[in-house]
Amino acid sequence: MQKSYLDFCLWSWVLVAFLGVACSSPKSPRIESKEGLDTALKAHPILDSALLQFKRGNYLLAQRNYEKGLSQLSDQDSALQFFVLNQLGVVHYQMAQVDDAIKYWDLVNTHFNYFMEPDQKASILTNLGSAYMGKGFFQTSISFFLEAKRAFELDTVRSENFWINHLNIGVAYMESRNLFLANRFFNEIPLGLSENLDVLIHINLAKLKALQGNEKEFQRLMNLSADDLTKASFYQSVFNEVSLEFNLEFGNVSELSEVFDLCILDKGKRGVFFDLLLINTAAKIGQGSPYPETYWNTVLPEIEMDDNVTWLMYYKSLAEFKRGKGDFESAFTALKKVAVHQKLLDESREETDLLDYGLLAQRKEIEQQLKGKIKENELQANRLKAQIYFILVLVLLLLLLVIGGIFIYYQYRTKNKLAQEDLEKKNLQLNLSEQRQLDLEKDLIFKNQKLQSILLTVSKIAILKKQIESYFQLIDSESLDEKAQRLKLKQLKFDFTLFFNNYQDLAVLANLEGAAAKKMEELKKSHALLSENELRVLLLISQNYTSKEMALLLTCTEKNIEYYRSQIRKKLEIPKEETIMSFINHHI
After folding, report:
1. CA angle at residue 311 from 310 to 314, to 5 degrees?
2. What's the sign of the alpha-carbon dihedral 273, 279, 283, 285?
């Protein structure tokens, strides 16, 4: 039976995707990168040579080297076994040995089923689907493609390979004449993923519309395909074949004339079916046959006995040719052959459908058996897990007991430690309270002394006030001459000077009232290192008092004042070249 025209084209896409897969463990057939594959193959020169021959198209030599290399691999080389078995399937498929290709891919799918990553499994299933579609087993191929779709869907990202598999499902439905589902799958594929995929989508949709008899949509989609081919010329020959086949059915002479000049370049290169399309096209557009009359006899050995599609096309074309020559008897004989091969084709399709459904049922049965085994393995695995979990629970309980004992001991030690720390803290607080009480007693004594001093000062002020009042009363009551008045004033000045020299603490008290007292508190907070006397000196300096004046105010010597000045410089780190007043203005 003739193979689908997209069969080998689609395989090239799957192959590119498959060679990029890789694996991460000795049991899993994945090699992490192309460099990893090259390294693994270099360790086995015969496999490296096989891959080289495969790339050159020497499939028979590649097959021999792969088979020889496979026999030399051990069970530890599972990744290479996986690669070689798949490559053997590829080689046989390229040599049109579809049954052998299926055998190797089935072996990969069965042997590595538990170890394959989803993308690897999907690639193998896609290959098997393509192979069965080539044999005409469309229902079986659809089952493989749908299983590959489920494997691809395990990845949240929809890769290009996912949509290629989607396209394969549509092609299989279209070949089995389920045009509704084919149209659904084709239209679900987004455009713009790649130029090649866009070409395939438009060509398949065009063929679908042609099978539905919609010539207008067929021509529109073929025009879109032609635009896509300017960026992806790989599928030009596929486009030409579809254009010839369906424009012949529609009898579209103008389109046939346009595509004929392109297709004639492939004469003798695309097989008998394509050459017969060229002959029919030439006759349709009124051109001479591209082949001599002897072609009809020389081409017969090239047609396989079971290729009823090509035989049907051959005898249809021969009948038209003989009718054009006026040889109606030969044309009638050819038409009888058409009827025979049409019947054979129908019988072959019926037989293929029966085999297809039988194979599908067998596959379903095997799938059910496999699911049963998987379920049984899962039950065994679950029992083993349960035993492991039971042991883990026992170990965990023992561990919890040990941890609990350690925790209780730790809590006991922590409690004792906290109690001891609390006792030490209370002792410290008691000591601080006693010290604070002593400080308060000292402060109380100091304040009592200060209060006595203030009371004494007030009494002295009262005496001074009485002396001043007595002076003015004396002046008022006595008639003193000018000399006597000057003498009394001199006496009064002396009394004031004596009072001022003896009671300077009153002046200090006055200076520390109001804003100066507030300033004193601010200085205490910002300059804790300074003593009480140093703070007073700093405050008086800020108010422009001289050392002598400060000595009088603080009832101390000028040497004491100079000492306080030096301590202020030292504690506040005032440079020698800067005055204390300047420092105060800039920093305080």
Report:
1. 85
2. positive
User: Which domains, from first to last, does the chain contain?
Assistant: 503-587 (1.10.10)
DSSP 383-431: HHHHHHHHHHHHHHHHHHHHHHHHHHHHHHHHHHHHHHHHHHHHHHHHH
Rounded CA-CA distance 225/209 in Å is 14
Sign of the Cα pseudo-torsion (198, 201, 207, 210, in order): negative
Rounded Cα distance between 11 and 93, Å, is: 9
* Cβ atoms of 276 and 241 closer than 8 Å: no
Between CA 109 and CA 142 the distance in angstroms is 17
Both tokens of 140, joined, read 């079986």
Provide the CB-side half-sphere exposure for 577 (13 A, CA). Answer: 0
**Can you read off the two tokens belonging to residue 332?**
């009638």
Alpha carbon 391 to its chain's center: 38
Mean pLDDT of 555-560: 86
Say if residues 405 and 412 touch (Cβ distance below 8 Å): no
Cα(12)–Cα(131) distance, rounded to whole angstroms? 13
Instruction: Quickly count helices (H) and strands (E) in the chain.
Output: 25, 0
Angstrom distance (rounded) from CA 32 to CA 447: 90
Residue 279 CB coordination number (10 Å) = 21
Residue 190 zone, left/alpha/beta (φ > 0; ψ -120 to 50; rest): beta
Region 31-60: mean pLDDT is: 79
Phi-psi region of 492 (alpha: psi -120 to 50; beta: other; left: phi over 0): alpha
Q: Whole-angstrom Cα distance, residue 86 to residue 107? A: 9
List the Cα angle 75/76/79 in 5-degree steps.
95
Distance CA(198)–CA(226), nearest Å, equals: 11
Q: How many CB atoms lie within 10 A of CB 276?
A: 23
Per the structure block, which two tokens stand in for 86? 């798949």
Cα separation, 468 vs 84, whole angstroms: 130
Q: What is the pLDDT of residues 414-454, one digit of tens each?
A: 888 888 988 888 888 888 888 888 888 887 887 777 677 66
Look over the chain and give the mean of its residue pLDDT values, rounded to a whole number. 80
